[in-house]
Amino acid sequence: MNYNVKRLDKYSFKEVFDLYWKPLVAFCQHHTNNEEIAMDIVQDIFCSLWKRKDNLEIETRFEYYLFRAARIKISDHF
Fold this sequence. Notes:
This protein has 3 helices and no strands. Helix 2 packs across helix 3 (62-77). The N and C termini lie far apart (30 Å). The protein is globular, with a radius of gyration of 12 Å. The chain has helices at 10-32, 35-52, 62-77. The protein is an all-alpha fold.
């Protein structure tokens, strides 16, 4: 699914959050072996997305962008 990030309002952002929260947490937990760290990483991703949405250019599938961000955050953590 693709989203125009610049057009995300709080309702569409919640839709994105609800759609991707659990899969992202599961992905991060698999790679960190720690649910709390996984949830912190995903929260950071969504906070960053919200803060940067007006200036963010995503040129890939949105799902790919989120999971790539998760991989980067996981590697930064360790």
